[in-house]
Amino acid sequence: MRLSIEGFANCLMIIEFLNNYKHILTIPDNLIPTLNNLQQSLLNSSLSRDLSSLCQILLRIALEDPGIPNPKKALTNLGQKLSEIDITEHTFGEILRIYIRERNGFDDKLTQSLSDTSFQTLIADEKAEILAFLCNDLSTNKRV
């Protein structure tokens, strides 16, 4: 199994972003993967626990700043606001789906995939695309 060209390009961008801004965004060094570790985590779901933790941290930071355009409109299926929910292993996929939908302004293939399955079971290129999306969004963070 291999990543597509787009998936590999996303990995390179993710690694560069994390290494350049880990101290500013206070991301623990032990969660910053090497390029090889990132690829292995994306391709092998049994290695994706650290990847999921990293993605949860990036999402938590992104929810604070840049946030979502209209927080009152961003509700879960149960009607809860994102600010009222702790990001856990069980809520992560739903919060991530809503965040991406609200930042884009519409549902896309990533939000559809997240509504059908969990982050851990997505294909490698989709996980890389989600991480790249979060890194791109975080490039507008005030601290960056």
TrEMBL record:
<dbReference type="InterPro" id="IPR018501">
    <property type="entry name" value="DDT_dom"/>
</dbReference>
<dbReference type="GO" id="GO:0000785">
    <property type="term" value="C:chromatin"/>
</dbReference>
<protein>
    <recommendedName>
        <fullName>DDT domain-containing protein</fullName>
    </recommendedName>
</protein>
<dbReference type="Pfam" id="PF15612">
    <property type="entry name" value="WHIM1"/>
</dbReference>
<dbReference type="GO" id="GO:0005634">
    <property type="term" value="C:nucleus"/>
</dbReference>
<dbReference type="InterPro" id="IPR028942">
    <property type="entry name" value="WHIM1_dom"/>
</dbReference>
<keyword id="KW-0539">Nucleus</keyword>
<feature type="domain" description="DDT">
    <location>
        <begin position="5"/>
        <end position="68"/>
    </location>
</feature>
<dbReference type="Pfam" id="PF02791">
    <property type="entry name" value="DDT"/>
</dbReference>
